[in-house]
Please model this.
Amino acid sequence: MPESITITDNRNGQSIEIPIVEGGVNSAEWSKLLPGLWFYDPGFSATAECESAISFIDGDAGVLQYRGYPIEQLAERSTYLEVAYLLLKGELPTAAELEDFVGQVTIHTFIHENVKRFLEGFHYDAHPMGMLVSELAALSTFYPDAKRIDDPEIRWGHTVRLIAKMPTLAAATHRFCSGMPFVYPNNALSFPENFLSMMWKMSEPAYEANPALVRAIELLFILHADHEQNCSTTTMRVVGSAHADPYSACAAATAALYGPRHGGANEAVLRMLTSIGSLDNVPDFVRSVKEGHGRLQGFGHRVYKNYDPRAKIIRQAAYDVFAVTGKNPLLDIALKLEETALADDYFISRRLYPNVDFYSGLIYQAMGFPVSMFPVLFAIPRTAGWLAHWNEMLDHKTKIARPRQLYSGAPRRDYVPIGERS
Ligand code: ACO
Model:
């Protein structure tokens, strides 16, 4: 069987044979046969936007790999910074490389004092995700050389800075929203410990986080670090393809992540579980979803048509956290909801399973994070994935992203003076 497809233009009988390479067909080839005819693909459901060697997903089998390594192995044995290195460089670091990378990240955790002052301009009840988007965009003005994306050394410097500063910016939004003083990074601590210290430290000389909670944050950071061409990563690539600096591109990616269909879903899950309120209300809630009144948040995925492997790991990890914090009372509602949905033909026939967001919010809430911080907790580790894709895209010398449209508006018409309009 030839590994190719043949397209025939029935208007003139001309055909073209296009090879299938890596599971795709090159659009430049069919454009030779069909100039001016565009493939209509809203939501890019059937479009490979790029070639990438970072993450692999088999949505039918529920498989996720970073640079070939199964997510289950990385979740069990790695750290977030090791995974960030893997995503960025393509290989697991040696001990010396990891030490050097961790050192580079650690010395870049501080933010300019003016960034802190910038936060004071926000209203007291500003959403932390809106604040994070603005802080990231503002950082581009602090590092004008970040525009020099053609210089690999400068690019690496800002890649490290962004990974290092995300927890500091994230914790700063929370401290500001809660009226608490900003906590400076403590560079004697590990990446997740330092984040928890900046979140929760009060008057004690040094904040000591519970090791089980540090491990849970590390695990969640690993699981959220990358997920191939999701909405925010695509945004990062699209904005980056215009050669915007990485801070502006990360601000745009964070804005995409803010949406309830994407990184805002874990926040939506918690609100949904809270509004369901009790086990008795689960059947009625599922019925209303089936009747088209809203969606079952934390269920369904564009790519996974099976249990999201990250959701499986998080569901398990939840019990380790609850052993320290006490069980989140919403867990029982979540379990009942999952059981009801997975036995229901509506969800079975549409292949809707729990995704990464279904259980993560329960852990975050048990650890004391306010619901509005959930998408921020997603943005911190996803920064590694965004930057891996941004660097890969620039290495591939990708063209500016510029899709076509099918115009469905009015034909040419003449301007009508305002007094003559009906
Ligand atoms: N609850 C109920 N029905 C659903 C759900 C859901 N969560 N998700 C999809 N469906 C239904 C749709 O109504 C549609 O049914 P129909 O064929 O009868 O019209 C069918 O399943 C297909 O849905 P689409 O919207 O076409 O699927 P798409 O791939 O575009 O959407 C998405 C994927 C956005 C994740 C969707 O499943 C959803 O909205 N889920 C809830 C929000 C959520 O959990 N988002 C987090 C995703 S993971 C992440 O970003 C980290």
